Amino acid sequence: MRRRTKTVSMRRVRKKELRELKNIDYPEGIERPRIRADCLMMLRPCPFVTCKYHLYLDVEKTGSIKFNYVDKEPWEIHPSCALDVADKGGLTLEEVGRLLNITRERIRQIESWCCELLSEAPELQEYRPPVRAA
């Protein structure tokens, strides 16, 4: 059974927890990649939890931190990078839900919302998915 995600408000983060987040141990002698090309040859799972493409945590617009995998450590999730997942190609709603630790239905809702946004922006027409037959 999957555990739900956990969101921690920055207002409620204790100084000790904040220090722990800032002092995440990175491997000795490995510099954080600056571009995707640098990242491709890095070890996996990716140790750089603070990267915006890492699947372990998300930082919300409000500054809150959302832990996607509360029952696992960063080195226990695989795949750990959203860019690696995107490079693989199309995934089912179930597979995406498993990666983000949310339900298939929530993925479908997000997909619908994104398709709506794309239909309203003529400059983004090339990114619209093909229309599905009913």
Annotation keywords:
134 residues, single chain, mainly alpha, 3-stranded antiparallel sheet, 7% strand
Largest beta-sheet characterization: 3 strands, antiparallel
The class by helix and strand makeup works out as mainly alpha
SSE sequence, one letter per element: EHHEEHHH
Strand residue content: 5-15%
Strand order of the largest sheet: 1-3-2
Helix content range: 25-40%
Name the shape in a single word.
globular
Poorly predicted runs: none
Number of helices: 5
Could you give the distance between the termini?
33 Å
Computed Rg: 17 Å
Summarize the structure.
By secondary structure, the chain is mainly alpha-helical. It has a domain at 6-88.
Textual characterization of the structure:
This protein has 134 residues and is mainly alpha-helical. It is built from five helices and three strands. The protein has a domain at 6-88. Helices cover 33% and strands 7% of the residues. The relative contact order is 0.14. It is globular, with a radius of gyration of 17 Å.
